[in-house]
Write a structure and sequence with these properties.
Order of helices and strands: HHEEHEEEEE
Helix content: 10-25%
Distance between the termini: 60 Å
Shape: globular
Strand order of the largest sheet: 3-4-5-7-6
Number of strands: 7
Strand content: 35-45%
Structural class: alpha+beta
Length: 145
Amino acid sequence: MKKLVFLVVLCLGVQVLAAQVRVHTDMRTPTWNIIGLRYDAELAPGKWGSVFPPRLKALNNKVIELPGYIIPTKVGSKFSEFMFSIVPLASCPYCGSGDIPSMIEVKMVAAIPITEKPIKLKGTFLINDSGDDRSEFFLLNAKLL
């Protein structure tokens, strides 16, 4: 009986350990923190939109470097356009678990292969404050560092 109880406890312990979420590398940098300052507010009665504080607007049209993870927007093995986030795909609330992270739409100079590992990019940061349905942030002419 003791052996049976031991085996059950051992199996349950293995299941708990296997169910643990893999912790990703923290990609937060001062630049990501500034990008995270964007917030939503009621701009007029019944009209909501994004607010870009002055510190964030100061990054507009500047060349920046950001570490992060590729979030593909279509199927493939190499990408020249994708979303970029401080958390990996497995932590994306639409694809896994977690909160909604800041994301940037990237347009690369040359296509790069998909990877689950963090990468570092350099490109021109652009804020889209037009209110249209496109991404609010872009990294244009990006290069892999």
